[in-house]
From TrEMBL:
Keywords: Dioxygenase, Oxidoreductase. InterPro entries: Glyas_Bleomycin-R_OHBP_Dase, Glyas_Fos-R_dOase_dom, VOC_core. Gene3D superfamilies: 2,3-Dihydroxybiphenyl 1,2-Dioxygenase, domain 1. It holds the Pfam family Glyoxalase. It comes from Haloferula helveola. This is Glyoxalase I, and type I ring-cleaving dioxygenases, VOC family. Residues 6-126 form the VOC domain. GO terms for molecular function: dioxygenase activity.
Amino acid sequence: MRDPENVFHLAIPCADLDATQDFYVNKMGCELGRRYDDRVTLNFFGDQVVCHLDPDGIDKEPKMYPRHYGVTFRHAADYDALLDKTEKHGLPFFQEPFVRFGGKREEHRTFFLIDPSNNLLEFKHYNDPSMMY
């Protein structure tokens, strides 16, 4: 079980630190932790995402599965607020918002974004919070 005092850490490649910081901080609303010449560290909804400058590590043709990351929101209002912010800032969808598993216990709303370095982000909300895991 996760101790809420601990923070999950994810490191991903990026092609351009300025574009990465603009996408995550200015448009998505993530908090900038720190920035160095080779990386940007972000507070990504309470967890740590570090975007390492690695233009050669960029996925030229990203696919949703199996590699993406994101947040499963417990509250629909948080999902809706991020979706509104995404649309307001014109962030690029990799997959427009849709409902998965409609009518089933695991039904959830989801959308995928693509960041400036082709990293895919999924955000979702389950009607039944017991399905979050």
